[in-house]
Amino acid sequence: QVQLVESGGGLVQSGGSLRLSCVASGFSFSSYTMRWYRQAPGKERELVATITPGGGSTTYSDSVKDRFTISRDNAKNTLYLQMNMLKPEDTAVYYCNRPYGYWGQGTQVTVSS
Question: What are the average pLDDT values for consecutive 10-residue runs of the chain, which has 113 residues?
Fold first, then answer.
C-alpha cells in the first residue's frame, strides 16, 4: 500500500535551516507530482511547494518563496524540502502529499524567536 514517511523536523532558532525528507513506497514515485503542505495550530492546511514527476518544475507559496526548495531523488523514492531563513511563522506540522488523498503522518517544525 501507499506509504509516505516524513522525517527531519525539529526545533530551530529563527534564521536557521532544516531539511525535511519524505520516503515513499507502494507506488511508482517517479510518476507522480508531489507536494509539501503544512498546518499551524488553529489554521487550515496550506500548500507549501509542488514538484513535477521529473523534478523539472517547482512552484512555491508566496510565504516560502526564495527561502524553501523542494526537490526529489526518484532513484531513492524520496522527496525533500530544504528550509532556510526559517521564521517563527513557519512553525507547523509539515506533510508530504501524493495526489488522490495520500498523506504522511507529518513532522513537527518549531522555530523559536
Answer: 97 98 98 98 96 97 98 98 98 97 97 96
Model pLDDT, residue 82: 98
Q: Which amino acid is at 77?
A: N
Strand partners, 98: 102
C-alpha to C-alpha distance for 63 and 83, rounded to whole angstroms: 12
Buried/exposed 62-72: b ≥16 CB within 10 Å, e otherwise: eebeeebbbeb
- Tell me the C-alpha distance between 45 and 24, whole Å: 21
d(Cα 7, Cα 69) in Å, to the nearest integer?
16
Retrieve residue 52's grid coordinates.
513535477
